[in-house]
Design a protein that fits this description.
Layout: H1 24-40, E1 47-52, E2 58-63, H2 66-81, H3 87-116, H4 120-128, H5 143-168
Antiparallel strand pairs: 1-2
Helix pairs in contact: 1-2, 2-5, 3-5
Length: 179
């Protein structure tokens, strides 16, 4: 078969999906619905569920952290909508991001102060077991949970800001029905 036996079709007629078109608005709608679904669930941390089947085998199932899943959904929506950002939304999101950064720094400082208040022997033992690393939250301390809760609330604010942006950009389409 010679190289000139095929023909290149129209690029504009390329189709993807069931209806044949890529729709950014429907993609944003799906992502917004995903965020709403994730935010409507019970916000619980991850946990390990251990069950035994009828043969006595142990089955371990790790459920993911619903709070972190909701935050990640909002981050994905934010990344998708980034091309639509204006100065107003940039300023609002920067304020929220700065608040999260300041809170993280503050909580890490509190955890480090808590660490320094421990006895020398206990600190050595914990360090040997890898229970303390600088600039990281640790499971045995409440500071990490406090940060996750604060971050979730700030991500809710980000989601509200993105919805306001959608309204300003007229992403909401009204439908008319005839009787």
């Amino acid at each position: 078969m010679a190289g000139d036996d095929f023909e290149i079709g129209e690029v504009e007629s390329f189709s993807n999906g069931k209806d044949g078109n890529y729709s950014r608005s429907s993609s944003l709608m799906r992502q917004t619905n995903k965020v709403q679904d994730d935010l409507s669930r019970e916000m619980k941390p991850s946990f390990l569920e251990i069950k035994r089947d009828r043969f006595g085998n142990t089955i371990k199932t790790l459920t993911d952290d619903a709070r972190k899943r909701a935050c990640e959904s909002i981050k994905t929506l934010r990344n998708t909508m980034q091309c639509d950002f204006d100065d107003e939304i940039d300023k609002e999101l920067k304020t929220i991001d700065d608040a999260v950064s300041k809170r993280k720094t503050s909580l890490l400082k509190n955890e480090e102060d808590n660490w320094k208040a421990l006895s020398e022997v206990l600190r050595f033992q914990m360090k040997q077991r890898g229970l303390f690393q600088q600039n990281r939250f640790h499971r045995d301390q409440p500071f990490g949970e406090m940060f996750v809760e604060f971050t979730l609330e700030k991500h809710r604010e980000i989601f509200q800001a993105l919805l306001r942006l959608s309204k300003r950009m007229n992403f909401y389409v009204g439908e008319s029905f005839e009787a």
